[in-house]
Structure formats: C-alpha cells, structure tokens
Amino acid sequence: MIVGLGNPDEKYLYTRHNIGYMVAEKLAKQLLPLERSEIGWEGNKKFTAQICRINDSLFLVKPHTYMNRSGIAVSALAGFYKVKITDLWVIHDDIDLPLGKIRIRKGGSSGGHNGVESIINNLPSPDFIRFRLGIGRGKLDIKKTTDINLSRQGIEKFVLSPFRDREGGEAKKMTKNTVKAIVLALEKGIEKAMNRFN
C-alpha cells in the first residue's frame, strides 16, 4: 500500500504539502496504461480516501481525511487489507530537506510532520517506509533568506503555499525522481532505492 499525503480541497492542489498526492498520481500514470490511469482513482467513502488499484498486490491511496488526520484512513485501510507495516510506504513533504532532495527511510519519528504523526499514532508500529521529499524552508518573501527557522504559523503558511515559478522545475524533477525511486524499490527492493536516491 503506497500512500501519498495531502489535503483534498482544490485550493490545496498545487501546494508544497500536497507533493505526496502529486507523486501518487504520477506513479499511477507510470504503472497503469494511460486509459486506466485517468479513471483509476476511485473515491471510497468508507475509508475516506481515493484508491487506485494497480494489481492484486499493490494499490495507491490518497487519504481525504485532511493531513492532520491521515492516520485514520491509513490505519483503516491497512487493517482491512491486512497490510504489513513494512509493506506500507508513505510519501510526504519534508520542510527540513532542501527543495528537490529525496530521503528514503524506515521508521523513526514524525520529524514534526502532522500527517506522519497521525499515521504513527494510529498504527501499532512506526516502522513503515517513508519517502521524504524536500520542499525547502523559507519565508514567503523571496527577498529574504530561506535558511531560517520559521514560527509554527510561518511553517503552516509556507507548506500550504504553492511552489514559486523558479522552484517549479526542481519540484517536477523531484516528483519524477521519486516515481523512479518507488518503481526501483518495487522491482529491486527498498535498499536499492535507498542506495541510489538517498
């Protein structure tokens, strides 16, 4: 089960916090024939999520519970489909990584990410795989330095902002590389993906 984290409302569509959704959608297009990938996502009210089934043993998920309650949908789906913790992969933004950087890891803390924290709190173990995607850290005023610590309110505003025009190319490249990393992990194992992309 591969989960892309984000917020469902249209106003959040292209924000930094929704990079998990973006990767999940691009992954569906990579893994499915074009005609299936366009209609592959189905809303599921029971689990409050959109689900795209790739085959009998792999499906993609976009929780629609909003970021802070992602764990509710993830836990319900993992329980229903009897997904092992190590077979749960979560894709999410990471403000502590520079824009474009990818880090793949197993387990650990949430690093202050509310969506990951919610998943940890709703599962018996934190040992799921995370694909952490760097969205940069900075003020919304591009004239000021981006290498700063933001207030909590500043962080919320930043992660819910869209990528700037000058960041668009890097964000697209990161999305593409994350899809490559996931496909490699599916085919050759998570260690291979870590060695190549971390």
From TrEMBL:
The record marks D93 as: Stabilizes the basic form of H active site to accept a proton. One of its GO terms (biological process) is protein quality control for misfolded or incompletely synthesized proteins. The active site is at H17. SUPFAM superfamilies: Peptidyl-tRNA hydrolase-like (SSF53178). The record marks N7 as: Discriminates between blocked and unblocked aminoacyl-tRNA. The keyword Cell membrane does not apply. CDD domains: PTH (cd00462). It catalyses: an N-acyl-L-alpha-aminoacyl-tRNA + H2O = an N-acyl-L-amino acid + a tRNA + H(+). It holds the Pfam family Pept_tRNA_hydro. Keywords: Cytoplasm, Hydrolase, RNA-binding, tRNA-binding. InterPro entries: Pept_tRNA_hydro (IPR001328), Pept_tRNA_hydro_CS (IPR018171), Pept_tRNA_hydro_sf (IPR036416). Coiled coil: none annotated. It is found in: Cytoplasm. It comes from the Bacteria. TRNA binds at Y12, Y66, N68, N114. The keyword Ion transport does not apply. One of its GO terms (cellular component) is cytoplasm. Its EC number is 3.1.1.29. Catalyzes the release of premature peptidyl moieties from peptidyl-tRNA molecules trapped in stalled 50S ribosomal subunits, and thus maintains levels of free tRNAs and 50S ribosomes. Hydrolyzes ribosome-free peptidyl-tRNAs (with 1 or more amino acids incorporated), which drop off the ribosome during protein synthesis, or as a result of ribosome stalling. Monomer. Belongs to the PTH family. This is Peptidyl-tRNA hydrolase. It comes from Candidatus Gottesmanbacteria bacterium GW2011_GWA2_42_18. The gene is pth.
